[in-house]
Design a protein that fits this description.
The radius of gyration is 24 Å and the shape is globular. The protein is α/β, with parallel strands linked by helices and about 500 residues long. Helices cover about 35% and strands about 20% of the residues. The mean pLDDT is about 90.
Length: about 500
């Protein structure tokens, strides 16, 4: 299958930090389909060779394990091309079409590749412009797909407008809304765990599970992205997309089959079942915070308001913790705790399923409920926390142990990165791991009362609660779960 993968924003950070390294790994692993061309598109004027040299320099900054040797890069670079395009000029799209329809290996006028994927690694407010221009140039035929990078809008209305324009040019089956967390191997193994095995399904319900926690923690600050982040905040950046997508994956009903619409139908049911927020419940069940200066890994780091391009009086949240419930028969009454933040003690993304305690313990000493930990980063894996006898003497009580499945060690193949996997899925046209427009809009619909309440409260409650960099956020986040007699996973 021949394909052309076109990156709008081909000289941007996302292109060289994530997308091109992901494609190189697919090339290195022999998974990239033959007959492919990778085209960077941006305003800068440069030749193919100049772009390859630019990319070669950027590759020196990626992780050691993903950095190509010179010979490897030279082979990969043969697939890489570049075209300067002004996103607002129809003539540039006409030239782009000419390039796509001319493949040197097949002869001029061959009508191009079997598949063309346009990846919009650009700011979302340009999505409508690019989609309209692609449509006007006739670059929206049945062999074409468009990948939309997050964030898709900044509220429900803007997301609906983007989706309206996209739907006017492309069919829903041509639109691939990407959430890179869905490409993580641990998330895919969560699906295998739930729907490929009989072990957990009888336990996956309110009668057996006390609560579920989703934590997406970062030890980094906002770096040089202060102006972007200050317009976004943790709720839009992480909760509305990543955390809610993980919630749907953990809580969805088994789909009748493994295909894009069946999977996404079940995820949408979860989003519709999330308990809606009111002003009162936002103030009771949502905690927002903003980091102040502190110490991480022995290094002093500045507070958020001292970061580059951040207003000195900013009320942007860098931390969110919230409690919600899913109002259906499987999950009614089970708290779901979602938490994300910057400048926390470490980079840690995980889902923790806390099971209910046994009804009566016959052993001496304290008992501890079982839990399942699905680790997303920095490593992928599963941990099952159990109790076992100390040595062979039950009279001495039980001690916590855990079964640890490390996906890197369990499988001989090298770990496939999230972007690598999702790019391959987009080329293949499989929609299972991409977000449908109704999912994405329902997620915005659910978080909007939080945004609206915060906007009203900014003048009266002082904005986000401060927390010291290197800690797990404001104390109110611990109090939030303590109301239910629970604790965050690191406090258990």
């Amino acid at each position: 299958m021949s394909f052309d993968l076109v990156f709008f924003g081909g000289t941007g950070d996302l292109a060289w930090r994530k997308l091109m390294p992901g494609l190189f790994q697919a090339f290195r692993h022999g998974k990239l389909p033959k007959g492919g061309r990778l085209l960077g598109v941006a305003r800068d004027k440069m030749s193919d060779d100049a772009y390859r040299n630019w990319l070669h320099d950027r590759f020196r900054e990626v992780d050691d394990a993903k950095r190509p040797a010179e010979a490897e890069f030279n082979e990969f670079a043969k697939l890489v091309h570049y075209r300067p395009v002004d996103l607002s000029k129809p003539a540039d799209y006409a030239t782009l079409r000419e390039w796509l329809e001319s493949r040197p290996d097949e002869g001029r006028g061959s009508n191009g590749a079997d598949t063309v994927v346009f990846y919009l690694a650009i700011t979302p407010f340009l999505f409508p412009t690019v989609c309209e221009q692609l449509g006007a140039a006739g670059l929206n035929g049945p062999r074409v797909r468009v990948v939309l990078e997050k964030p898709l809008g900044h509220d429900l209305a803007s997301a609906q407008e983007i989706n309206r324009v996209v739907r006017a040019v492309f069919s829903e089956t041509q639109a691939f809304r990407i959430d890179h967390y869905l490409g993580k191997s641990a998330v895919q193994n969560l699906m295998a765990l739930r729907f490929g095995n009989a072990l957990f399904e009888p336990l996956w319900r309110r009668e057996c599970i006390a609560n579920i926690q989703i934590t997406l923690a970062e030890d980094l600050g906002v770096g040089t992205r202060g102006d972007f982040y200050d317009r976004t905040g943790a709720l839009r950046d992480m909760i509305q997309n990543h955390a809610l997508q993980l919630t749907t994956m953990i809580a969805m009903e088994p789909p009748p089959r493994f295909d894009g619409n069946a999977m996404r139908d079940e995820k949408l049911k979860v989003l519709h079942s999330l308990k809606p927020f009111t002003e009162e419940t936002v103030r009771r069940d949502v905690v927002r915070g903003q980091y102040r200066s502190g110490t991480i890994a022995g290094r002093t780091v500045p507070g958020y308001r001292e970061e580059q391009k951040v207003p000195p009086e900013s009320q942007c949240e860098t931390f969110v913790a919230l409690r919600t419930e899913i109002e259906n028969w499987r999950w009614a009454g089970v708290p779901f705790y979602l938490r994300t933040g910057k400048r926390l003690p470490g980079r840690d993304a995980k889902i923790v399923v806390n099971f209910r305690p046994i009804p009566h313990s016959i052993f001496p000493g304290p008992s501890r409920p079982n839990k399942l930990v699905i680790k997303l980063q920095p490593e992928d894996g599963l941990e099952m926390h159990l109790l076992a006898a100390k040595g062979a003497r039950l009279s001495e009580g039980l001690t916590p142990v855990f079964l640890d499945l490390d996906f890197d060690k369990a499988f001989a193949e090298k770990r496939v990165g999230a972007y690598e996997w999702l790019l391959l899925e987009a080329i293949a046209g499989r929609l299972n791991l991409f977000v449908r427009s109704d999912e994405q809009e329902q997620a915005w619909r659910w978080v909007e009362p939080i945004l609206q309440t915060w906007q009203r409260d900014n003048e009266t409650d002082g904005g986000p609660r401060p927390y010291t960099a290197g800690t797990w956020g404001p104390a109110a986040a611990s109090a939030l779960v303590a109301r239910d007699g629970a604790a965050w996973s690191e406090e258990q």
